[in-house]
Amino acid sequence: MLKDTHAFAVKGTTVNRAAIMSRATKASRATCVNRASLGLLLSALMLGGLNVSAQAQDSPTQSAQTQDTQVQSAATTSNPDQRAAAQVLDLLNQYSSDADWDKYFALYRKDGIFIGTDASERWGMAEFEHYSRPTKGWRYDLTERHLIQHGDVILFDELLNSPAYGVSRGTGTLIKTDGNWKIAQYHLSFPIPNEIAKQITAEIKAANKQ
After folding, report:
1. What does DSSP assign to residue 115?
2. Which residues is 156 bridged to in the sheet?
3. CA dihedral 35, 37, 38, 40 (to 10 degrees)
4. Which residue in 7, 34, 46, 128 has a CA-CA distance of 20 to 30 Å to 155?
């Protein structure tokens, strides 16, 4: 019985060693596979990084979009000049709604120009006052505004909503004059959706022929 037990123990030891060797071989192979996988992953990441870098350098459209976003966000995080200019435009809409013409025209430069929605409406201040003062004013509520500053000049464009005309657009220029921002030009227009542009322009052509 002792011999059988000893023999069994030897066999058990032999089996255990074989199992251990088998496990070690599998672990070694797994390690090799993991290393190979890791190498492939690193290579893919490096190539991906190079591709992203190349796309960033070769995509002027993407760069332009980023710059445009920064310009638009400047209207939100504006400097003191831009805040003052925005206030002038806010007051312009308020005073026109109230028909407070003295305060309204004080926001313009003396040589300012107003361009209205009709093709004939390009007015200096005297002509514009002559048109405006007999009226009860007009209302345009701000929807969106962008400001771009170049020294003492600020360019602006804004989307407005009019109870009478709906979506409207104002564009123009402010110039710092004697320490204050004054409107040098304001252009009011009605944006036309592309889908009906030909229809509207055809009506305009027909009206001009009459």
Report:
1. E
2. 147, 172
3. 120
4. 128
Residue range 167-191, pLDDT digits in tens = 999 999 999 999 999 999 999 999 9
**How confident is the model over 108-117, as pLDDT tens digits?**
999 999 999 9
User: Which candidate, 30, 156, 8, places its Cα nearest to that of 93?
Assistant: 156
Q: Residue 45 pLDDT more than 90?
A: no
* Phi/psi at 61 (5° precision): -65, -45
Token output for 32: 């090799």
Which residue carries 């009019």 as its tokens? 162
Beta strands, E only, the chain: 108-115, 122-124, 141-150, 153-162, 166-177, 180-189
The SS3 assignment for 165 reads: coil
Cα distance between residue 186 and residue 7, in whole Å: 106
Burial 139-148 (b: 16+ CB within 10 A, else e): ebeeeebbbe
Tracing tokens 């926001």 back to the chain, one arrives at 107
**Which segments of 43-189 are extended strands (E)?**
108-115, 122-124, 141-150, 153-162, 166-177, 180-189
Q: What is the bridge-based pairing of β-strands 108-115 and 180-189? A: parallel
27 pLDDT above the threshold of 80: no
